[in-house]
Design a protein that fits this description.
Elements lengths: L1 H7 L9 H28 L6 H4 L6 H28 L10 H12 L4 E5 L1 H11 L6 E5 L6 H10 L5 H10 L4 H8 L12 H13 L2 H11 L5 E4 L6 E6 L2 E4 L11 E7 L7 H9 L2 E4 L4 H9 L4 H7 L3 E5 L14 H12 L6 E5 L17 H7 L4 E5 L12 H13 L2
Parallel strand pairs: 1-2, 1-7, 2-3, 7-8, 8-9, 9-10
Antiparallel strand pairs: 4-5, 4-6
Length: 420
């Protein structure tokens, strides 16, 4: 039954294989016809031993002989193709149990997927990308460069490079590499002078020194991991995120949540960092732009605050989608509702940006960290944001209820938003 199902996959439209198989069959048929003419001439004009009549099945009618040879020939053809796949193509297929038809179909389907641009950073961005890469390979991730904590902050301060941490997470999320390679990039050293550094951060840093350019370093790292899509810094300027927390100015993305106070405003220093031209181009060519999920003040807004970013989003013909978090983030969004998230974005950007907003409707799974869930009061929110269409759906990760489920979220974006 499984073998039959695998063969039926070759009949699915979109593989761009059947046409060449048919052409190959026609070519073989023409060759067969030529050989048949030669054999017929030799058979009629040359003397043959009497036993050859049994080999050529002359005791059967022409129709019966044709049927026997047709079945035998097809059996040999199928057997040879199967063995060819196993011996020649098998070593090159990711996942030993996947057939050629499965791999080709997945490749063709993803290549025809929508052009999606995601903005954000951190865990939320990597969660989104991990799900989307199964539906489209036309992906671009615009990543904030305001991170200054942990390993990224140390490398940024010591080597004056853009912080590699969020880029590493996106690389791993979009990778089509072996699990061991992904584990290697996320491996964090525990002792010595490298204590706290992840291998992926060090790899990107070393690559930037070799190539002389951070963008090239990310691009080359993507080749190592066979990444599906592009990962683009929102700006190439070394920026610092500054926030007004309880009336006090706090500098540094990592320091802002640690204040555990009311954040009223965030902005970037220097004031006018230039938007990365690649980011602007990706937005203009996009069919779907997705903002979030992620830390509102330290991952989402640092991208939107880059001058020219909001204008590029507005002018893009793409569908604009906001993915709201499923749970509050301590130190940033205590007891925030969907309306609070959209309100903060509107305050910082000057208008409503989104055609759609995706909110979680599954309230049965409480976050294990004790955070409150982000609630959705539809009549009130719809009244304040009349141009936005809200989609309430189960997008929560039941194993980690404070996060989105990559598959649920990606399927919703592709099936209900893109195909609307």
């Amino acid at each position: 039954m499984r073998a039959r199902t695998r063969w039926l996959r070759w009949l699915r439209p979109g593989l761009e294989v059947k046409r060449w198989i048919i052409l190959l069959a026609v070519g073989i048929l023409i060759i067969d016809l030529a050989v048949a003419y030669f054999l017929k001439d030799a058979y009629q004009n040359a003397p043959w031993p009497s036993w050859t009549s049994y080999i050529t099945l002359q005791f059967l009618s022409h129709a019966q002989r044709g049927a026997v040879f047709l079945v035998f020939g097809l059996a040999l053809l199928v057997f040879s193709i199967v063995q060819l796949q196993r011996s020649v193509l098998g070593p090159f297929l990711p996942g030993g149990d996947r057939s050629v038809a499965e791999v080709i179909y997945a490749f063709r389907t993803r290549s025809r997927g929508p052009r999606v641009v995601a903005l954000g950073g951190g865990t939320g961005m990597s969660t989104l990308l991990r799900g989307l890469k199964e539906y489209t390979s036309n992906l671009a991730a615009i990543v904030t460069v305001a991170d200054d904590g942990g390993s990224s902050g140390r490398l940024r301060e010591e080597y004056r490079i853009l912080p590699p941490g969020d880029f590493r997470q996106c690389l791993v999320a979009l990778a089509d590499a072996e699990p061991l390679v992904k584990q290697l990039f996320n491996h964090r050293f525990q002792n010595g002078s490298l204590n706290g550094h992840s291998f992926g951060n060090l790899f990107i840093m070393a690559m930037s020194e070799v190539t002389g350019n951070f963008e090239h370093a990310v691009r080359e790292s993507g080749r190592v991991l066979a990444v599906r899509g592009d990962i683009i810094p929102s700006t190439l300027t070394d920026v610092t995120l500054v926030a007004s927390v309880n009336g006090t100015m706090v500098e540094g993305e990592s320091k802002i949540p640690a204040q555990n106070g009311l954040i009223s405003r965030v902005f970037l220093r220097p004031d006018n960092p230039a938007i990365n031209p690649e980011a602007a181009l990706a937005l203009m060519n996009a069919e779907v732009i997705v903002v979030g999920p992620g830390s509102l003040y330290t991952s989402i807004l640092p991208n939107l605050l880059v001058p020219g970013m909001v204008d590029a989003i507005r002018e893009s013909p793409a569908l604009k989608v906001f993915v709201c978090n499923v749970a509050e983030q301590p130190g940033e969004t205590p007891d925030y509702s969907v309306d609070d998230y959209l309100g903060v974005i509107r305050e910082h950007t000057g208008s409503d940006l989104f055609d759609f907003a995706i909110v979680n409707s599954n309230l049965e799974h409480m976050p294990t960290g004790g955070q409150s869930q982000v609630v959705f009061h539809e009549p009130e929110v719809q009244r304040k944001h009349p141009t936005t269409r809200f989609i309430a759906a189960d997008v929560v990760n039941e194993r980690i209820p404070s996060h989105h489920d990559p598959e649920k979220l990606a399927r919703l974006l592709i099936k209900r938003v893109w195909q609307v």
